Model the fold of this input.
Amino acid sequence: MHEHSLADAIVEKVEALRRERGASRVTRVVIRVSELASLSEQSLQLMLDHAAEEAGGSSFTVELVVDGLLGHCPSCGIVPISEDLDCCQCGAENCRPAMDEGMLLVSCEFE
Done:
């Protein structure tokens, strides 16, 4: 189940950000995924709760934004791409669409 590996990666990233900022806990994150990803906010939330518990942290609320295409740009990494598979940041052509592995951490709220 790809939600589990995404949840582990999200928890790892937001916990690193929490420590960097000296916050006591993460309260909410907004994640952007490709329209090609077959993710549900509810199942991702369950996996995040489980991953946070396994990591010894506290759970947080997730908002999943499914909007447009994300792709792999050789210069920029995972970024929004056009329908022509061009990178929306640097204009590189022939980017590869990100299926279920593509996500962008849009924002993170802390206490």
About this structure: The two ends are 31 Å apart (CA to CA). The beta strands are 26-33, 61-66, 69-73, 77-81, 96-97, 103-110. The chain has a mean pLDDT of 89.
